[in-house]
Specification:
The complex is a heterodimer. In chain A, 45% of the residues are buried. Chain A has helices at 6-11, 25-57, 60-66, 69-99, 207-218, 227-238, 278-286, 288-291, 306-318, and strands at 107-114, 117-122, 127-130, 133-136, 140-147, 152-155, 163-165, 171-176, 181-187, 199-205, 268-269, 274-275. By secondary structure, chain A is of the alpha+beta class. Chain A has three domains: 2-99, no CATH class; 107-218, Immunoglobulin-like, CATH 2.60.40.420; 227-318, Cupredoxins -  blue copper proteins (Immunoglobulin-like, Sandwich), CATH 2.60.40.420. Chain B is mostly helical. Chain B has three domains: 31-498, Cytochrome c oxidase-like, subunit I domain (Cytochrome C Oxidase, Chain A), CATH 1.20.210; 582-627; 658-832, Four Helix Bundle (Hemerythrin (Met), subunit A) (Up-down Bundle). Chain B is 66% helix and 3% strand. Chain B has a two-stranded antiparallel ribbon with strand order 1-2. The chains are: A alpha+beta, B mainly alpha. Chain B: Keywords: Cell membrane, Copper, Electron transport, Heme, Iron, Membrane, Metal-binding, Respiratory chain, Transmembrane, Transmembrane helix, Transport.
């Protein structure tokens, strides 16, 4: 089938953010349906182009056969009616299979969309993280999608289609990842100035590894061990970071901005805007409006000294 | 063959006709309202907005040429893509097809002019003024930035405090007035102003397409006006509609917007399909195959398109099995389009050797691009597929294929095809260059987007990360956009160099068979042809020469004024000769006032807004007072040919203005239905409790109902008095207005007494919105009736000259009925719970 679409082949059908590289049963069903649609579309487009060519340049006898009402009714009504009825029946079957997916008790995760970041709440264990979705391989997951401000939409194309997060509603997406590795999810409903930089890594672990990770997320953070880390934690309090951010096991429990309990272990910063490392973390604290203009984090380059920012970053980076 | 009027004609007859239709000279040419000048200006303005919005598209493509480029900031990018979409949809596509209709229809239908030329001219001026000021918002950084469909709560006051959103809500809401005014003119013109003998069955497909287009505009566009009004009420006065904290639902906006937005796609496409159905027969020099089926397809598309709006909402969480209905409707709507494609192909096959001139190439390009876009359209109506494709570049590719293929290419074909009929021909050589650049450029720009979408690229992002495999496809798209730009430059150069408006050319370079290729002047045809076939120039030999010599109907001006023939809607049997207005500036003053009012409101400048409103009203009143309902002129009736003697004055249901008011009432009814629908939708979202707890008192409702009935009775009684005594009993009219005002005040009071406050909950706000809407109608009714009474006092209204009264009565009675229906809803519905 892919013969007909060499361009798609050239592009390669794999990638961390493509519906054509299915990592789970849901995406797989849609990918197969897509291939069918692309093939059928390609065939019909070819038929139309051939028909136009014949209508213009074919010998008179051929043209005569096309230039009558039977041709119009046959190609313009009967043919589409038959193919589309078949397609409707088939696609309804796929829809049904997708929405009735699942039998086992799923793991439940709530994802709250906010301008311009994600809060992930693992409802069964109470763990809270942000801007990163970690899943166990082979386990059914039920994502409850809500929004705290405007409409967002969660799209992890390798696992399933997208579903909106609408204020005042909760939408439910069930999926399963069958491969271990890293994917990418992104907001697909325009949500404001930094809609572009609202993505998140999706990491699929072996179940045992996942359980370990989850237990760490649910546990209070350890006390700082080096003097620099201790200084960093003090800066966190003094600069008022705790007015917006939470750190598990401390007095800071605000939910306005991302939970930072294990921020050091995350792959990216600022919802996929930067790779996570000490330098980027310090740069982000100093000048978030230069990196992601319009996000809700104020800049600390003026109110904190370079040393303070470095200490703060070192402490946060140690939370793994 | 004998002609309706004997030949040759007396020489002074043609001089008198030309004198009545003389176009003012110099700058005063802009005071003319004739479709021969307003139509081309309209087209030129639409092309200006196409160019401006196209340049915004080029900026978008430059920014996305490679990952991480930042030619414009995120905030500016968001304004640019919002304006690109908004300007293309509202300031280019809809006005452009309306413009082509206004330019071509009178001559295509064998009429001298549209029946309400001043309304058309007003529509043009508010479009020009409103459009330019709206576009300028970009230069001040206050352009809308929420995407062209402006979803709340992103666009609510809390999340978008700036005036950017107000620019959209007031600017676009107001420009839609222009679209609706144009649609009313088109409906009445197509139905009533056709050459004698041009039955609906013989009417050209383009006229059918424009009729269906205009019908869709008057039903669908009120939805976006209501949606914009509700959001503006929420932003300006804190009346909740979309805020979940107070019972609102963001999805209400989406339902209203897409109830407009999906038909909008076909609103743009159907006229273009109509153009193709005219150009293809000219290419093949043979009548369109399956003519009746093609007309049926246009009508079917219009009906089905109103069942498709949820296509844009597959991912909001509506249960998948309910979506099946919409998927089926989406499949169904592709059948009429497919039918037309094969009718065109069949026509090409059935004729002589096909002529592939520039217009023909654009038609072939259209067939390819539109078919591809239609096929991806079927794909995205497959629900599970759309869950992946929705809001990605696949959709961007699809919508550009459909809109560029389905609308821009036919429009350009039309430009090359019809330029010789309204002026000088364009260059075939440059046209072919433009075609190849635009055709290759369009495919190079948008085909790769199918792939980048499926490689994971969401729409509306100002940059994208490297490493996802998006680089090459975006680079190709950008190169394609530059190719399109080159094609656009060639096209504009061709127009600037070769096109000049001119009149009196009798050239028919493509040997077409329809009436627009007759020799016409500012007055339209020399005489209005007797039509007996679908392609009169092919199928009625000698008719063209006879009509051009003045041998057919109405070769003269009877009253010395501009006139055209008005006939029955289906069979085009002449009924009366309508006297038309001529050049003036009152409508321009009215347009300046209207545009200024809305712009001032958007800028929250209330005092200038009031000033502009006064100017606008003055313009309207002058326009109405001095040149509508002139009353019967001499001669009262005349022979227009073949012994057909018809009057030169009409009032009541036979008159075109009565039809125009009736069409306007369809607009009002559609808007009211959107409001009532919103009320019921919000009840569905919230459950019974609030509705059942705060029922407005029945006594108030019954009193208001009685007042509406009494008001209606009073006006009907006044009409009877006018008929019997030839004088308007003004007292009855004034009492009727007072009763009407009392009724709507009673409605509002009943809600207030029941404890409803508009800011507290959607139950209250949606109830008050209905009453406020009624209040606007009451105010307009009062204005109309006050004007009627003033005309009577000025001696300009009597038993015979009563058009003003008849039309005002129609509006007034509608207002009473709408008020009564509102009472039944607000008082009756909660009692059913």
């Amino acid at each position: 089938m892919k013969r007909l679409l060499p361009l798609l082949l050239l592009a390669g059908c794999s990638g961390p953010q493509t519906p054509l590289d299915a990592w789970g049963p849901q995406a797989d069903r849609i990918a197969r349906l897509s291939t069918l649609l692309f093939t059928g579309g390609g065939v019909i487009l070819t038929v139309v182009v051939v028909a136009i060519t014949l209508a213009l340049w074919a010998p008179a006898s051929w043209r005569k056969r096309m230039g009558n009402i039977r041709f119009v009714i046959g190609m313009g009504i009967v043919f589409p009616a038959v193919t589309l009825t078949a397609l409707l029946a088939h696609s309804l079957g796929v829809s049904r299979a997708l929405v009735t997916f699942g039998g086992e008790e799923p793991m439940r995760i709530e994802i709250v969309g906010r301008q311009y970041w994600w809060e992930m709440r693992y409802l069964d264990s109470g763990a809270v993280t942000a801007n990163e979705l970690r899943l166990p391989r082979g386990r059914e997951v039920e994502l409850t999608l809500t929004s705290a401000d405007v409409i967002h939409s969660v799209w992890i194309p390798n696992l399933h289609g997208k579903l909106d997060m609408i204020p005042g509603k909760a939408n439910v997406l069930r999926l399963r990842a069958d491969r271990v590795g890293e994917l990418r999810g992104q907001c697909t409903e325009f949500c404001g100035e930094q809609h572009t930089l609202m993505a998140f890594p999706v990491v699929v672990h072996e179940p045992s590894e996942f359980e370990e990770w989850l237990a760490r997320q649910a546990a209070p953070v350890p006390a700082p061990t080096t003097p620099e880390q201790q200084a960093g934690m003090r800066v966190f309090g003094a600069a008022g970071c705790g007015a917006c951010h939470a750190v598990r096991g401390t007095e800071w429990q605000a939910r306005i901005a991302p939970d930072l309990s294990r921020v050091g272990s995350r792959l990216t910063l600022a919802a996929g805007a930067l790779p996570n490392n000490l330098g980027n973390l310090a740069g982000w604290i100093a000048a978030p409006q230069d990196i992601k203009p319009g996000n809700h984090m104020p800049a600390f380059a003026r109110s904190l000294s370079g040393e303070e920012i470095l200490a703060l970053s070192t402490w946060l980076d140690s939370l793994r | 063959m004998t002609t309706p009027n004997p030949l040759p004609r007396p020489s002074e007859e043609f001089e008198r006709l030309k004198a009545a239709w003389t176009r003012p000279r110099g700058w005063r040419v802009f005071t003319d309202i004739n479709n021969n000048i307003i139509g081309p200006l309209f087209v030129a303005t639409a092309l200006l907005f196409l160019t401006l919005a196209g340049l915004l598209g080029v900026i978008i493509r430059l920014q996305l040429a490679w990952p991480g480029l930042e030619i414009v900031s995120a905030a500016a990018y968001n304004q640019i893509f919002t304006m690109h979409g908004t300007v293309m949809m509202f300031l280019f596509a809809v006005p452009a097809v309306e413009a082509v209709g206004i330019t071509l229809l009178p001559s295509m239908l064998g009429s001298r002019e549209m029946p309400t030329p001043r309304l058309g001219a007003y529509a043009y001026w508010i479009y020009l003024l409103g459009g330019l000021s709206f576009f300028s918002s970009l230069f001040f950084g206050v352009a809308p930035d929420g995407g062209w469909f402006m979803y709340p709560p992103l666009t609510s006051k809390e999340n978008s405090p700036g005036i950017n959103t107000d620019m959209y809500l007031l600017g676009i809401g107001f420009i839609e007035i222009s679209a609706i005014a144009g649609a009313i003119e088109l409906i009445v013109g197509i139905l009533r102003c056709r050459a004698p003998g041009m039955t609906l069955g013989r009417m050209p497909v383009f006229a059918w397409a424009m009729l269906v287009f205009a019908g869709m505009v008057i039903i669908a566009f009120p939805a976006v006006i209501i949606a914009s009004t509700l959001l503006e009420l929420e932003r300006a006065f804190d009346w909740p509609f979309f805020l979940p904290e107070r019972g609102g639902d963001p999805l209400l906006w989406q339902h209203l917007f897409w109830f407009f937005g999906h038909p909008e796609v076909y609103v743009i496409f159907l006229p273009a399909a109509g153009m193709v159905s005219m150009i293809v027969p000219a290419m093949a020099r043979t009548p369109l195959l399956a003519h009746s089926l093609v007309v049926l397809a246009l009508v079917a598309t219009a009906f089905l398109s109103f069942g498709l709006w949820v296509h844009h909402m597959y991912t909001v969480g509506i249960p998948a099995m309910s979506l099946a209905f919409f998927a089926a409707a989406g499949f169904a709507v592709s059948i009429p389009s497919g039918l037309q494609v094969f009718a065109w192909i069949g026509t090409l096959a059935s004729g002589e050797k096909v002529r592939l001139n520039a217009a023909g190439l654009f038609v072939l390009g259209f067939l390819f691009i539109f078919t591809l876009g239609g096929l991806t359209g079927v794909m995205v109506s497959v629900t599970p597929f759309d869950w992946q494709a929705h809001d990605t570049y696949f959709i961007v590719a699809h919508l550009h294929y459909v809109l560029i293929g389905g609308m821009v290419f036919p429009l350009l074909a039309a430009l090359y095809h019809w330029a010789p009929s309204i002026g000088t021909a364009l260059s075939e050589r440059l046209g072919k260059w433009a075609f190849w650049l635009l055709f290759l450029g369009t495919n190079l720009t948008f085909f790769p987007m199918h792939i980048s979408g499926f490689m994971g690229m969401p729409r509306r992002i100002y940059t994208y990360p490297a490493g996802l495999g998006l680089e090459i496809w975006n680079l190709l798209s950008t190169l394609g956009a530059l190719t399109v730009l080159a094609g656009g430059i060639v096209l504009l150069y061709d127009i600037a160099r070769n096109f000049r408006l001119s009149q009196g050319s009798s050239e028919n370079p493509w040997d077409s068979g329809t009436l627009e290729w007759m020799d016409t002047g500012n007055h339209g045809p020399r005489s209005l042809p007797r039509v007996a076939s679908r392609y009169p120039l092919w199928q009625q030999p000698g008719m063209k020469e006879q009509a051009e010599a003045g041998g057919h109907y109405l070769p003269m001006t009877l009253t010395g004024q501009r006139e055209t023939l008005v006939g029955t809607a289906s069979a085009a049997v002449p009924q009366y000769v309508a006297v038309l207005p001529g050049p003036g500036y009152a409508h321009i003053v009215a347009a300046v006032g209207t545009a200024g009012t809305f712009l001032s409101l958007a800028l929250e400048a209330l005092v200038p807004a009031a000033g502009f409103a006064a100017i606008g009203l003055a313009g309207f009143l002058r326009w109405l007072w001095t040149s509508t309902d002139l009353g019967p002129l001499e001669p009262r009736e005349a022979d227009i040919g073949e012994g057909i003697v018809i009057p030169t004055y009409a009032t009541g249901p036979v008159s075109v203005s009565w039809w125009a008011v009736s069409t306007l009432l369809v607009v009002a009814g559609s808007a009211w239905a959107c409001l009532a629908g919103s009320y019921l939708f919000l009840w569905l979202v919230n459950g019974d409790a609030r509705w059942a707890a705060r029922i407005p008192e029945l006594g108030w409702g019954l009193a208001a109902f009685a007042a509406y009935v009494a008001a209606a009775g009073s006006v009907i009684w006044a009409g009877r008095g006018l008929s019997q005594h030839g004088r308007l009993p003004s007292l009855f009219v004034l009492v009727a207005v007072a009763l009407l005002a009392a009724a709507v005040a009673g409605e509002a009071l009943a809600l207030w007494e029941a404890g409803l406050r508009p800011r507290e909950h959607v139950h209250s706000s949606s109830s008050f919105a209905l009453v406020a809407f009624q209040g606007v109608h009451v105010a307009v009714s009062a204005l109309m009736m006050g004007y009627t009474v003033a005309r009577a006092w000025a001696g300009m209204l009597n038993g015979e000259r009563r058009l003003v009264f008849d039309n005002s009565r129609l509006f007034f009675l509608y207002t009473c009925a709408q008020g009564a229906a509102g009472l039944v809803l607000l008082h009756g519905f909660p009692r059913l719970l």
